[in-house]
Amino acid sequence: MKHLRTTLGPKSKSELGMILPHEHVFVDLRTPDQPGYAEAEIEDVVRLMAPEIERIKKLGVTALVECSTGGVGRRADIDLAVSLATDFPIVVPTGNYREPWIPEWVRQASEKELEAWMLRELTEQIDETGFQAGWIKLSAGDDGMTVLETKILRAAARAAAQTDAVIGSHTIRGRVVMDQLDVIEAEGYRADRFISIHTQEEKDFAYNVAVAERGAWIEYDHVGRGEDNEVAELVIKALEAGCGDRLLLSHDRGWFDPALPMGGIPKPYTHLSTVLLPELKRRGIDDGTLMRLTHENPFEAFAR
């Protein structure tokens, strides 16, 4: 039986309902060499972010995926603290972001060392938190993968192949996604265990379809950030193109930012539930399809 690996332990499909597949609880978009990078008092983060979690719990959301990875301020201990304070499971990644958000130790590590690090976090625990990483998050440059980014991807594919973990990548260009899938398959892993994050940023819709037809997940994660009518139309277009079985929806919102006073002002994770889903239903999308997009697809994407 497959499970979602979360801060509160493995969760089966029967234990979960709606899942948000791309959000942030804590993120630092400064590079890791900056003073104060990823530093915050845990109590301050809980104070700011727990109310946001409580809001979506009341809307029927049962888990969210934290997308802050290495290089952009991943703090698994903070994710755990927020999770425990709200009794709400959070799925935390291993992996590392793209250049220039790559810390020196990752830059110097061999592919084998990176593979071993990710594998340990996927099968044992992240740091000393007591919970496993649920997936692998990385990224690629807009114009193509650098040598360093390719090294990280190859290591990720090898670790994922041993665990059935999904690899998600912040990749803007569809042609770069195709290159990433080539690398993953060359390492013996599968396209259907890859998520093309921010797929909406590729304006050539043919690439959206091509990525889904190759078997990968496509993710429209600008709900509440993009204009509602345009987001709804894009979702319907993807459904009409036959991509419904490979489509994920989320906000890419939150979050506590340690670069801002008191963490800044969070952006709620509620727009999908309160605005987009009712709008899609008004436009004729049936309840079964909406359930698949918000319950079934996220579980199938991240569970292993």
UniProtKB/TrEMBL annotation:
Organism, scientific name = Rhizobium aouanii
Pfam families, alphabetized? PTE
Question: Has keyword Hydrolase?
Answer: yes
So which residues are the signal peptide here?
Answer: none
Q: Which UniProt keywords apply?
A: Hydrolase, Metal-binding
Which superkingdom is the protein from? Bacteria
The protein, known as = Esterase
The answer on whether this UniProt entry bears the keyword Protein transport reads: no
Task: Spell out the InterPro entries in the cross-references.
Answer: Metal_Hydrolase, Phosphotriesterase
Concerning its family, UniProt says: Belongs to the metallo-dependent hydrolases superfamily. Phosphotriesterase family.
Modified residue annotations for N6-carboxylysine: K137
